[in-house]
Design goal:
single chain; mainly alpha
């Protein structure tokens, strides 16, 4: 959970609005704790 808190501090609302949609989706998944090996890697390869 420490990483999630640091991510929320690192990205302000303005930064998120500037970010591409796929990055915003990735950030939301990380914040909600959806970082689990295969699913996260599969999602990244799909976005790129």
């Amino acid at each position: 959970m420490y990483i999630n808190r640091r991510l929320k501090k690192a990205f302000s609302v303005a930064d998120i609005k500037e970010a591409p949609a796929e990055f915003y989706g990735e950030l939301r998944r990380v914040q909600s704790g959806y970082v689990c090996g295969g699913a996260y890697a599969k999602m990244l390869s799909y976005c790129m």
